[in-house]
Write a structure and sequence with these properties.
The structure holds two protein chains of two kinds. Chain A is mainly beta. Chain A has strands at 4-6, 11-14, 19-25, 32-38, 44-49, 55-57, 60-65, 70-75, 84-91, 100-101, 105-110. The radius of gyration of chain A is 13 Å and the shape is globular. Chain B is globular and about 40 Å long. The chains are: A mainly beta, B mainly beta.
Amino acid sequence: RKEVEQDPGPFNVPEGATVAFNCTYSNSASQSFFWYRQDCRKEPKLLMSVYSSGNEDGRFTAQLNRASQYISLLIRDSKLSDSATYLCVVIPSGSARQLTFGSGTQLTVLP
Amino acid sequence: GAGVSQSPSNKVTEKGKDVELRCDPISGHTALYWYRQSLGQGLEFLIYFQGNSAPDKSGLPSDRFSAERTGGSVSTLTIQRTQQEDSAVYLCASSAPGPQQYFGPGTRLTVL
């Protein structure tokens, strides 16, 4: 079983739609959680951290369920510029802070 | 300010040759990481440097891979006797204290 699993998609949604991505992780002692965004042929960039209480940044909402070892990302009112691959990222407990990445979920927002 | 830079941006080499990939982290960042991303695969951790501590090499796939970090700044990833399965994008990241990592643009390695 992979340490971090995501639905690879692709998700093709119209502008203005709400879309949700899910991610599960296998190490119950994992300590930190993030969503990164990667545009085609570009490097990954931090989108947002994920906190147990849930957190929101504009149109983006991230949630963490430690009991189910599940992370989610919700994008509301999607824009064409949201088209990218979204990477679920975990720092496992005891690691030297290296990131463990899911394989990514590809999103295309259509006009 | 300047971000993480990597060179070369692209490298094509023949099977069996050695290659060196360079990373310049953000000035003042004490932690430096190497990852690789193969076609259709997620990002895979390779090696981690933190200050003057011994590096964490637990992600290196074979003894053909090595890395060093000189003066706590620039890092070089060396792949000896390259194989076709080494073809990937090699990404470097750096971080200050705290979890956020900043990635360079990567080096796209193609082994023919």
